[in-house]
Amino acid sequence: MALGRPGFNRGPRPPFKKKEAEHNINQFIKAQEVRLAGDNVEPGIYPLAKALALADELELDLVEISPNAVPPVCRIIDYSKFVYEQKKKQKEIKANAKQTVIKEIRFGPNTNDHDFQFKLKHAVSFLENGEKVRAYVHFKGRAIVYK
User: In the chain, which end has fewer C-beta atoms inside a 10 angstrom radius, N or C?
Assistant: First the structure.
């Protein structure tokens, strides 16, 4: 029987797994022919060996952009710069996405008309600002018995 805190005697930690690249690059491209695009390159269909030679000549990477196309579309670019720009775009999209805010308005079972109108005015202003409003009646103690 192991001593110590329960749940923490599972043995050694599994090894850290490095994330695989999202795109096939250079020698990991499996197609025989590729459609080439990119800067300083004549667009067209090339055999894989020639496309790799062109990428090597320009000291850049051959990156498979669209693997499902026939033949697959590849670009000759600097892969690390490409990944950086993609992450930057994703971050920008995420920053521009508006978070939905839900405002809550709580009523008691004995809320006066004036208080109700006051809370209603707030609810209308929240809705005009594009926020969502959740209104509910809150019972305290045994108040729910005396409906």
Answer: N
- pTM exceeding 0.85: no
- For residues 37 and 60, what is the distance between their CA atoms, to the nearest angstrom? 13
Query: Could you list the pLDDT tens digit for every one of the 147 residues in the chain?
Result: 555 566 566 667 777 766 666 778 887 888 888 898 877 788 888 898 898 888 888 888 888 888 888 888 888 888 888 889 989 999 998 888 777 778 999 988 888 889 989 999 999 999 998 889 999 888 887 777 765
In angstroms, the CA 24 to CA 61 distance is 10
Q: Is residue 39 part of a domain?
A: yes
112 vs 2: CA distance, rounded Å: 63
Q: 121 — phi, psi (to 5°)?
A: -60, -40
Query: Would residue 132 count as lying in a domain?
Result: yes
Residue tagged 């790799």 (tokens): 52
Please indicate, yes or no, whether residues 67 and 115 belong to a single structural domain of this protein: no
45 token code pair: 């269909």
